[in-house]
User: Fold this.
Amino acid sequence: MAKKFKTDQEMFWAGDFGDNYIGRNNSDQLLNSKIALWGKMLRSANNIASIMEFGCNAGLNLEALKRLSPKLELCGIEINDQAASEAEKIGGVEVLRGSILEEIDTDKVFDLTFTAGVLIHINPEHLNIVYNNLYNKSDRYVLVAEYYNPSPVSISYRGHSDRLFKRDFAGEIMEAFNMRLVDYGFVYKRDNWAPQDDITWFLLEK
Assistant:
């Protein structure tokens, strides 16, 4: 029996499109870029021992974090079963299966919770649920690495409408929970050494 989800976007990522995404975004070059990026994003974060990713896909960010700091306690939650199975192969990483628009099935809290290229695919009407989960599962820091736009916009994504949304995610989280901006930065797709997909990241603290 097919799983029931609140939004079309969840069904989109849980299904065939999410399956196909895995192969397009899993390479040694991208892993090396992510290791370099995490080195920058965590430079202003202190005493991080545990991290949870919302929407971990096949676990490339978790793999990068593990290589950067092998002692980290790492956890991810993923809506796509095939991607979650790939993430479980990393070893030493807890992988939960489910939607980040639902209550997260763990009593643990983490030093840092984050999304990377995930909030942009969430139905805007349900973003507050994800924001609450990010905040409540964090003991100190929340990090978002997404496409930034000062005002909300929807753009076509690989020929699909209502599947990619840009906005000031970090600003909304800071206002909702009175969080403090610790650090931020931009990664350019034409970077010579560690390119990413024009991602803007923000490190927030409670």
